[in-house]
Design a protein that fits this description.
mainly alpha, globular
Length: about 300
């Protein structure tokens, strides 16, 4: 009985460890974009394309061993790739018209759209402490990344683009929650990569962005964001979404700006101020409440 309980706890911990790994890997995305001397949509394209290229042999081997991909379950990763391409293109492009703080804050409205989508589309019941945790998490993210937005609010084309990023990011979470019910993380992310690469290729061709002629440092940044942000980050989050609802994963991802702020100290020499540190504490409180509401909801479901 004790062994079974211990095994169950270990199994329950693994999705959360994967989620934390995903947060850490994705928190490095801003660093790679900063280090790459290229238009944002181009960096986004190589992030998707190179990661898909690296994963192709593993995906083919997976298909030989187990044929899990079919016409019935391919729609969700295709949609996930389209949403991801729009997300990356909009967010990176918004930085040319608005501040990074504005873009990050508005992009992190994704948990709100996920919660609303899960409520209306999947009919998930979200308790009061979930909504309280969500509010705290968003307030914390606002304090960390949104100081400029709160001090000098201006809603222009860049802010509208960043707001659209939040919607597309939420749609990715919702489609992945459903798609991961039928596909393993590797297969799902590979299919998302194919769809997303094609989407970003079209976007770059329309915008007239050059895809060649970049420096060695920029190519290293391209490979870095593909390996770390896309492969490690998205596979980890995809695995978590296969075991946890999107309404839990998305608010927890608000921890990403917290981790980015911490990593920016040694990597970008950006030291957070007292307000940002307070925001990190508040966001962590919100994340804790969100996850507690998830556990409480599972207990209620299994109660006799």
């Amino acid at each position: 009985m004790t062994i079974a309980t211990s095994s169950t706890r270990n199994t329950a911990i693994i999705p959360y460890l994967a989620l934390l790994t995903g947060i850490l890997a994705l928190s490095l995305s801003a660093m790679f974009v900063r280090w790459a001397d290229a238009p944002g949509p181009v960096t986004g394209f190589y992030r998707m394309f190179l990661s898909t290229l690296i994963l192709t042999p593993f995906f083919l081997l997976r298909c030989i061993r187990s044929r899990t991909v079919n016409k019935a379950n391919i729609i969700y990763p295709i949609l996930g790739g389209i949403f991801t391409s729009c997300d990356l293109a909009l967010w990176n492009s918004s930085l040319a018209y608005t501040t990074a703080a504005n873009a990050t804050l508005l992009g992190n409205t994704a948990p709100l759209w996920v919660a609303i989508g899960a409520w209306f589309i999947f009919h998930e019941r979200l308790p009061k402490d979930f909504w309280l945790g969500l509010i705290l998490a968003l307030v914390g993210a606002a304090l960390i990344m949104g100081g400029d937005f709160l001090t000098h609010p201006r809603l222009g084309i860049g802010d509208l683009m960043a707001s659209g990023t939040g919607v597309f990011y939420a749609l990715y979470f919702l489609s992945t929650q459903r798609g991961r019910q039928h596909l393993d993380p590797l297969s799902y992310i590979w299919l998302v990569g194919i769809s997303g690469s094609l989407g970003l290729l079209v976007i770059n061709l329309i915008m007239g962005n050059p895809l060649t002629g970049y420096s060695g440092q920029t190519w290293l940044a391209f490979f870095g964001t593909a390996l770390v942000s896309q492969i490690i980050g998205y596979i980890s989050v995809s695995y978590a979404l296969g075991h946890l609802p999107a309404s839990i994963v998305a608010p927890t991802m608000v921890g990403q700006p917290i981790t980015t702020t911490i990593l920016a100290i040694p990597l970008l020499k950006e030291v957070p101020n007292l307000v940002q540190m307070m925001g990190g504490f508040i966001a962590l409180m919100g994340i804790y409440l969100v996850n507690q509401s998830h556990y409480r909801g599972k207990k209620d479901i299994h109660a006799p």
